């Protein structure tokens, strides 16, 4: 992580260069969004293509395919065999390392979904301008499939990989639950990858996932079937307050900051946890206090907040308006209001997420 110089002492020329670089980056994100949606990257990962071949294989117009390919080559994403060849005969290749980032959905380096997320949120800038003026919001359902799918895909590598296989077993109390085949509640489960990842990594465990977003639950159920764990993972389009019985582990993965009123949800998590159960919150690893300038993670989280998480939270009446940047003291206050004595920051080392035990 680095700290970007955003101090007022930066000269006009230096700051102008920074904005110009950002414009180039924004154009690259837009191109990546197109490459994702149109299937260009998946085709190029399988085999090099000329513009006519790429257009034919993806059902798109050749002239657009050619311009996109040339942009990607100029931007250093693709290589081209013979730049001097006739435009229709130039063959473009996707290097293996780039292909992993752009097409390997299980790789920790697969950051293409972030471009899908940013591109999707950008479709709603007019609505966001209105929300900023009125104090209202732009809800998760309004933001639509691009943002929903981008979020799910961005978390998938972690939720199927390090989270259930390294991070959770590193916490002794949770490792004991997983080893004895305990019962887990996944609050705010989204596309269900956290629930599915836990079930895949720990065959004795049963998981109940809860989310109030119907389209997300529909996808989660299909994902569980395809992963072969639908017999041990059940998804409910409902508030976790409807949960029956007690759970050995009650977890909320990267969702508390999105809740318009997190205190009742945390109180529910406390209520449905078994007497010796563990209540876990995993949320953004932002700085403990506000400082400026901030590192790249802090900048990223504020970027999500101003375009998605805060507008979604404020779309609901009576929202506390947390936003993405939920610092430990904020969660501590919510937890105490929900009846917990305190929170404990657990020693899990991840660049983007902080692990809290509530007790």
UniProtKB/TrEMBL annotation:
InterPro entries: Methyltranfer_dom, SAM-binding_MTase, SAM-dependent_MTases_sf, WH_DNA-bd_sf, WHD_Rv2258c. CDD domains: AdoMet_MTases (cd02440). GO terms for biological process: methylation. It comes from the Bacteria. Residues 34-103 form the S-adenosylmethionine-dependent methyltransferase Rv2258c-like winged HTH domain. Keywords: Methyltransferase, Transferase. Gene3D superfamilies: Vaccinia Virus protein VP39. Residues 179-291 form the Methyltransferase domain. The keyword Transferase applies. One of its GO terms (molecular function) is methyltransferase activity. PANTHER family: METHYLTRANSFERASE DOMAIN-CONTAINING PROTEIN, METHYLTRANSFERASE TYPE 11. This is Methyltransferase family protein. It comes from Pseudonocardia hierapolitana.
